[in-house]
Specification:
CATH architecture of the largest domain: 3-Layer(aba) Sandwich
Radius of gyration: 17 Å
Structural class: alpha/beta
Number of strands: 6
Helix content: 40-55%
Low-confidence stretches: none
Mean pLDDT: 83
Strand order of the largest sheet: 2-1-3-4-5-6
Distance between the termini: 42 Å
CATH topology of the largest domain: Rossmann fold
Order of helices and strands: EHEHEHEHEHEHHHHH
Number of domains: 2
Length: about 220
Amino acid sequence: MITVLIVDDQPLQRLGFRMLLESNPDTEVIGEAQNGVEAVRQATELRPDVVLMDVRMPGLDGIEATRRIVADGGRSHILMLTTFDLDEYVHAALRAGASGFLLKDAHPEELLAGIRAVAAGDAVIAPALTRRLLDEFAHHLGGRSAADPRLGTLTEREREILIAIGRGWTNGEIAERLVLSESTVKTHVGRVLAKIGARDRIQAVILAYDLGLTRPQQPG
């Protein structure tokens, strides 16, 4: 059972999420918060597996709440929710330690899949957001060299895996394209994240772009 804390300043939005999650056999809503301050307090008290976090809220917003929850060292993973398909807060939220981003108009099965993914320690970004996010990351690169010492700890295969992660490929896609079993890919991904000190796949994506290992693909 995956425990979930819902954070949103709109009561009807919280109700909608609650109804969906309570109708699902493997998710349990253990709390609701209407602002960032409540979110931080309840995350500390309830220690949910996943926090569904609205980005824009009055007072303490979802980004700062995420930063505080992650800094507290708790077990909760943060899945950010936004109304817009390009939100100026996205980069800050990912840097703050969010494990993923989904649009509020995502299909129910997408939201549930996202919750399961971040609860398992994976990361997720809505397909509609991925390309724009990575384009934006490319524009904000700091010119760092691919000679980063963290890369020196990776084997050639692990570097391939990091590049694939940077392209947004799932484990299944990596397995298919590199002709590996999914269990082998999962092992490689775990080792890569550990070696580069990344909290999750999203942090690995950021690193891959920062180091110039991956670039946004131009539209065809």
